[in-house]
Design a protein that fits this description.
CATH architecture: Alpha-Beta Complex
Shape: globular
Distance between the termini: 34 Å
CATH superfamily: Spore Coat Polysaccharide Biosynthesis Protein SpsA, Chain A
CATH class: Alpha Beta
Structural class: alpha/beta
Strand order of the largest sheet: 3-2-1-4-6-5-7
Oligomer: single chain
Length: 237
């Protein structure tokens, strides 16, 4: 059976999490509703992450990787994974595993009638400051994009690959994936998923990244929306 679903896992200095990531993904393969493989995208890690990724991929045929020469950011890692993907469906999950791979099955239940399905983190296990800054940032983003999504920062999404490949790459992309699907006249849906505390490694984003950065990105989105080209080929010969 050929692969149907690729899960992108961006990695930046996550050596303390990668063994657990591999274990959790192997467990998910056994219950996945689609034939699934994993693509690690090493975003210029400076710890032992790359060596660990190589070992994981050598020992498991359902894992592969690409590695950046230097750190380029989460949006670049996700975009690179989209463009390398060769399955009909693509998704991603963070390597801190604050969301559960098993919940991909919840999203996949709705992907046939939608072009992007995103998780909404129920009962978030983050600090008050992190939760509040994310809530404010999501409110600001919704007012700019009108995408109706409550938690675009949730690191658990499934997208039809042909839509994902048409998303133009820019910094902050990961916060605007639903809005970019709407620009393609696609359908989007959000589904509640589990959320867990980070048990290893360190968070890569502070208040600036979650609040002030997204506000600046909203203006970039408005410019892109105004300039966005969307067409459908009727025929060719």
């Amino acid at each position: 059976m050929s692969y149907q679903f690729t899960i992108i896992i961006p990695v930046y200095n996550e050596e303390d999490n990668l063994k657990r990531v591999a274990s959790e993904m192997l467990a998910y393969f056994k219950i996945a509703t689609k034939k699934t493989k994993v693509l690690f995208v090493n975003d210029g890690s400076q710890d032992n992450s790359q060596a660990m990724i190589v070992d994981i991929c050598r020992d498991n045929k359902d894992f592969s990787y690409l590695s950046f020469e230097k750190n380029c950011g989460l949006s670049a890692a996700i975009s690179a994974g989209f463009h390398l993907c060769d399955t009909a469906l693509v998704g991603y999950i963070d390597s801190d595993l604050q969301t559960a791979p098993s919940d991909f099955n919840l999203l996949l239940e709705h992907i046939e009638k939608n072009d992007l399905v995103t998780g909404v983190r129920a009962n978030r296990k983050d600090s008050f400051v992190k939760n509040m800054s994310s809530t404010i940032a999501n409110g600001i983003r919704r007012s700019f994009t009108s995408d109706g999504m409550d938690d675009t920062g949730c690191p658990l999404k499934v997208i039809k690959t042909d839509f994902a490949k048409r998303i133009p790459m820019f910094k902050g992309l990961h916060r605007f994936l639903p809005a970019m699907i709407l620009l393609q006249q696609g359908n989007i849906k959000q589904v509640p998923v589990q959320h867990f505390p980070r048990i290893a490694g360190e968070a890569k984003y502070g208040v600036w990244n979650r609040l002030l950065g997204p506000l600046m990105d909203c203006f970039a989105y408005l410019w892109m929306k105004k300039k966005y080209i969307n067409y459908t080929v009727a025929s060719k010969g």
